[in-house]
């Protein structure tokens, strides 16, 4: 990062404190996911029926669930799993989608039109329903959740890369690269893709939040991670049975964690858009 970019980023953050808060929230989320197993006060899967359904207290700051498991410990460990699923899925869809979209946008012609229509057909389906169908067919294992989430994220990156490369494929510096003997393959990978990556970073941040929500939604309806593995969607689903009896903490804490994670990634994406937008530098 150059000094000019750094100064511009600081200027954006000072003018938009929500972006700074979102960046701090994402950083905290990542740190919790990395160091979670070493900071949890209790075993997240160890049950103690004698302490079941205890409200938040000094001993259990987020209470206990129906099996006496510490809710706070399960929240911390669940952050690692949800973040791992989101990062893996978005990483796969980003790499494949960016490369496919870039080559299609560069080549143009029938291939470009065929891929464009395929993406349009995919986006015509409710993407969460499509993920449900794939996980139901493949089985509700973590790797299948990652695959399904990656597939439903592909259209965003293919469409974005295709449009951006289509605009840039005949600009002067691309023509100069071709005139210097660069192959079409090299022009796409060495010149066009790096040029559009900063703008795609905004989409990555937004999709990370959506991927976390998608994984939790699949778990909530029973098609995601299997119990007793700690996962935010499972915790909300299990706690929903006890809302009518006043055990609010079983839903409130995992629901709040899920909401804050998605909100921070979305706000960070908005802030990155301002930082990377050349019009904001004037």
Automatic annotation (TrEMBL):
TM segment ranges? 20-40, 83-106, 118-138, 144-160, 204-225, 248-269
- Give the location in the cell: Cell membrane
Gene3D superfamilies recorded for this chain? MetI-like
Report membrane topology: Multi-pass membrane protein
- SUPFAM superfamilies tied to this protein: MetI-like
A Pfam short name: BPD_transp_1
Q: Could you tell me which residue ranges the ABC transmembrane type-1 domain spans?
A: 79-269
Does the keyword field hold Membrane? yes
Q: Which UniProt keywords apply?
A: Cell membrane, Membrane, Peptide transport, Protein transport, Transmembrane, Transmembrane helix, Transport
* Main subcellular location: membrane
Q: Which InterPro entries match?
A: BP-dependent_transpt_permease (IPR050366), MetI-like (IPR000515), MetI-like_sf (IPR035906), OppC_N (IPR025966)
Tell me which domain of life the UniProt entry assigns to the organism this sequence originates from.
Bacteria
Key word Ubl conjugation present in the record? Answer: no
Q: Which family does the UniProt entry place this protein in?
A: Belongs to the binding-protein-dependent transport system permease family.
The protein's name: ABC transporter permease
Species of origin reads Bradyrhizobium diversitatis
């Amino acid at each position: 990062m150059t000094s000019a970019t750094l100064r511009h980023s600081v200027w954006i953050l000072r003018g938009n404190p929500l972006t700074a808060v979102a960046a701090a929230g994402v950083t905290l989320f990542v740190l919790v996911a990395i160091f979670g197993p070493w900071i949890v006060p209790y075993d997240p899967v160890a049950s103690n029926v004698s302490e079941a359904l205890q409200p938040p207290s000094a001993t259990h700051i987020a209470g206990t669930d129906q099996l006496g498991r510490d809710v706070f410990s399960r929240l911390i460990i669940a952050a690692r799993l949800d973040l791992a699923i989101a990062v893996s899925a978005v990483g796969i869809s980003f790499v494949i989608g960016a490369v496919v979209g870039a080559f299609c946008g560069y080549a143009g012609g029938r291939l470009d039109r065929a891929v464009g229509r395929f993406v349009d057909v995919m986006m015509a389906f409710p993407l969460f329903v499509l993920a449900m169908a794939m996980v139901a067919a493949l089985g509700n294992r973590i790797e299948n959740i990652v695959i399904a989430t990656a597939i439903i994220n592909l259209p965003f990156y293919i469409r974005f890369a295709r449009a951006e490369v289509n605009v840039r494929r005949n600009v002067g510096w691309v023509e100069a690269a071709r005139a210097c003997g660069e192959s079409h393959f090299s022009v796409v990978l060495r010149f066009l893709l790096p040029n559009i990556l900063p703008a795609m970073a905004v989409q990555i941040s937004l999709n990370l939040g959506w991927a976390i929500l998608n994984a939790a939604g699949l778990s909530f309806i029973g098609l995601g991670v299997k119990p007793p593995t700690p996962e935010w969607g499972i915790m909300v689903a299990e706690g929903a049975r006890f809302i009518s009896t006043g055990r609010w903490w079983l839903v409130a804490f995992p629901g709040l964690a899920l909401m804050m994670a998605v909100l921070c990634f979305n706000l960070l994406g908005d802030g990155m858009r301002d930082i990377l937008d050349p019009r904001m530098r004037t």
